[in-house]
Amino acid sequence: MLGTVRSVSQFRRPADVHASPAHEAAKYFDPVVLNESVSISLKHRYVYFEVPKAASTSVNAVLHELELRDLPDPYRVSTHPPSVSSPFVKPYQIPPALFHEVLTGPGFVRFSIVRNPFTRTLSSFLDKLFLADRNERAFYRDQLGFDSDGPVAFKTFLERLAVTPPEQMNKHWRPQVIQSFHRFVDLDFIGRAEDLSADLATIAARLGVALGPVPANSPNATGAADRLAAYYDSEAVAMVASVYAADFAAFGYSPHLEFPSPGPR
pTM here? Predict the structure, then answer.
């Protein structure tokens, strides 16, 4: 079972952050990933910083429904559309001064959804290296220096992450303190994938809107939460605790992973 976690709704970034969040974020986000990761609603005055493999497909589905609610069904879009097709305003569409206001000004509610690093890391491994279609698998495996086909052990994946600087990591396994913009801006709320419905209700109340229900099923689900014991031993736990130490510290997750003792045979 996962270790006990504290509520993360009160967690904020350290105070000693560079005065220009966009400048600091640019060290980690190329323009494509930046625009994929930052979703701005001018209508409802919020910014969602997307963390892949932290219920982002479900969150996008709920937020897209809000943004497109007044339009007919033909205007519906996929939950992960290209930035040029997104229902959100993206950073490339606004001047730097306005983007700075979006990241720092009092007129926007800024939030992200995070996930227990043990579960998120395993989910990323399963989804991108095994369950994705062949071309997608090859893309992610090539980034990590693996063959496009064939076995890849979970610990081998973790070893590769351990020697990869965060600025070179793919967004699906980049530390959440970076991907969520927690390191760069004051987030008004940090929800948890484990408490998604309740935390989206909190966000809706803050925005003064009604959000639709969370989809019952996600097409990118891997069942990672139920497969931890099959992939983690003490060495793998220590590796994830080291690579994602900042995530554990910032978001209140325990860096210890315990499994129920087997019952009598």
Answer: 0.88
190 domain residue, yes or no: yes
Q: Who has greater pLDDT, 196 or 82?
A: 196
Q: What is the CATH number of the domain that holds 119?
A: 3.40.50
In-domain check, residue 10: no
**57 falls within a domain:** yes
Residue 188 covered by a domain: yes
Residue numbers of the domain that contains 125: 21-251
The amino acid that residue 150 corresponds to is G
Structural domains counted in the chain:
1
Average pLDDT over residues 167-190: 97
If you write DSSP's letter for every residue of the chain in order, what string do you get? -BPP----TT----S---S-HHHHHTTT--HHHHHHHEEEETTTTEEEE--TTSSHHHHHHHHHHHHTTTS-GGG---SS--GGG-SSB-GGGS-HHHHHHHHHSTT-EEEEEE--HHHHHHHHHHIIIIIS-HHHHHHHHHHHT--SSS---HHHHHHHHHTS-GGGS-TTTS-HHHHTSTTTS--SEEEEGGGHHHHHHHHHHHHT--PPPPPS--TT---GGG-HHHH--HHHHHHHHHHTHHHHHHHT--S-B--PPP---
| Rounded to 5°, angle at Cα 64 from 61 and 73 | 100
> How do residues 244-260 score in pLDDT, each as one tens digit?
999 999 999 999 997 65
Give which of 168, 178, 172, 210 is closest to 49, Cα–Cα: 178
Contact 172, 179 (CB under 8 A): no
